Amino acid sequence: xxxxxYQANLGPNMFSRSSGSGLNDNMAGPxxxxxxxxxxxxxxxxxxxYARSTEEQRRYELESVADQLAEQAALAFLQVKRFxxxxxxxxxxxxxxxxxxxxxxxxxxxxxxxxxxLMLANVRxxxxxxxxxxxxxxxxxxxxxxxxxxxxxxxxxxxxxxxITRFGAAEEEPxxxxxxxxxxADKAEQAAAARVGQAKxxxxxxxxxxxxxxxxxxxxxxxxxxxSALVTVTGDLYKRGTRYQVRAAEExxxxxxxxxxxxxxxxxxRALTARQEIRGGALRIEAFSHQEKxxxxxxxxxxxEYKLGKRTLTELLNTQLEIYRAASARIVxxxxxxxxxxxxxxxxxxxxxxxxxxxxxTEGEEEHG
Length: 369
Known about the structure:
The protein is of the alpha+beta class. The protein has helices spanning about 45-110, 115-150, 160-165, 180-200, 240-305, 315-345, 350-355, and strands at about 1-5, 15, 20-25, 25-30, 30-40, 205-215, 215-220, 225-235. Helix 1 runs antiparallel to helix 4 (about 180-200), helix 4 (about 180-200) runs antiparallel to helix 5 (about 240-305) and helix 5 (about 240-305) runs antiparallel to helix 6 (about 315-345).
């Protein structure tokens, strides 16, 4: 701490002496002094460390928020594409059932099929239209959610597969220590450790050096200037609560360390969950794709057998329903995998650059040792 000051006496003081009252023979005149703190047992170091760590903590917390917003926007975009494809599949089901209904209508007109077959076909068409309406409503909601995050509502949504397939392999272990959320938690612990140092330093005095210059001393016999140099020691003989401040600072540091461990555990859990979702999703895609092909083949065979009277209309309509269900489940599985890859990319700390966004919001200072 640097401190410059001055003092002056505006008039002589009266003192009683053995010979009676008289002027003080050594009255100080105007003075200037400079005081420099040379050692404070860690107070300043703790203050600087706390301020620096807190500033870096806030910066990395901002980076972590940016990562989360990027993930939310990417997942919201996937929701739009998911419901867009589900809507197309529902429309395809309606189209297939309407075509089948026309063929059944021709058979009814020709007296080959019963009118009840046409009524059943109408029921299935109406049900498929309900699925299409539901998919369209979900798409509108997903678009609104994405617009709320990005502030824009485009008319065309590109296929996300080409970009997401360029992401890193999900088998690689993320560098958790470099994640903004983890670094922010580390900085919080460092700030708490600096608080401990500050609290402990309060138990010790402060050493300083004071230099002074007095313009003159007023006496009746002489006028002279004076220089002074002092080593100062300042502190509290007793300060209530210092011990408790140290204890509170140590508890704050332990809490910060626990928070850091919790953030790390959460990141590890999210990485593990994303990996499992990617692996499980790949198996689901394979199973539903096979089921879809089987249902399409069965539909063609059942239609021929229906015309020969070997299959009922219910069986034929059920194959169309199985095609729709398998295709919808496949789409859901595909986009579950894409969503898991986005979440894993975020856990790796590389989602924003992978999406073409800046890796960092600001160019921060180099890490301090």
